[in-house]
Amino acid sequence: xxxxxxxxxxxxxxxxxxxxxxxxxxxxxxxxxxxxxxxxxxxxxxxxxxxxxxxxxxxxxxxxxxxxxxxxxxxxxxxxxxxxxxxxxxxxxxxxxxxxxxxxxxxxxxxxxxxxxxxxxxxxxxxxxxxxxxxxxxxxxxxxxxxxxxxxxxxxxxxxxxxxxxxxxxxxxxxxxxxxxxxxxxxxxxxxxxxxxxxxxxxxxxxxxxxxxxxxxxxxx
Length: 221
Fold this sequence. Notes:
The chain is mostly beta strands and 221 residues long. It has a domain at 7-137. Helix content is 0%, strand content 29%. It contains no helices and 14 strands. It has strands spanning 7-13, 16-22, 27-31, 44-49, 52-57, 63-66, 106-107, 137-138, 154-158, 161-165, 170-171, 177-178, 197-201, 204-208. The chain has a 3-stranded antiparallel sheet, with no helix packed on it. A 3-stranded antiparallel sheet has the order 4-5-6, with no helix packed on it. The termini are far apart. InterPro entries: ConA-like_dom_sf, EGF, EGF-like_Ca-bd_dom, Laminin_G, Neurexin-related_CASP. Residues 1-139 form the Laminin G domain.
């Protein structure tokens, strides 16, 4: 999708599953009915064979679509990304996909096949061992059960990403680093005026003033 119009994407928008692909001569799109949010796990079957595509979500009826034009092959020479295409750089997503965010959530199981006469199998070589992964949770244990925040910090789950929300005075991935009185995240912030330098002391801090200023916080000209 980076060097042309060809792409294949699956995502969620406004509670519906959207499946789109473009073989180079126009986009074909299928949109499901709204998801049944009482279900804990959703099952999606989708496929493409030449120009024809199909999508079945949970117990909804199977939907089909045919892409426009005469092109029948999907020319994608890069990796196939499942669960988030560099979700922090959405500008790398194909323009036609119209998705602005990467994946949030967890995936219970994935099976794929590359031709109609193959059996479905788990991706990766060996089977079930994908190339690499990032920010895609597996629907079993909570990621927070694997994270131990220190010094009163609280583990927060955001999609499939976790982080420690630290108490005042602490920072770092696991809240193990103290916040210096001179750092901008210290509460309360230091009072050194802009252009001066805050220097921590055993009991508080002092302000080193630039030429032309004076005062406790370099506030006087």
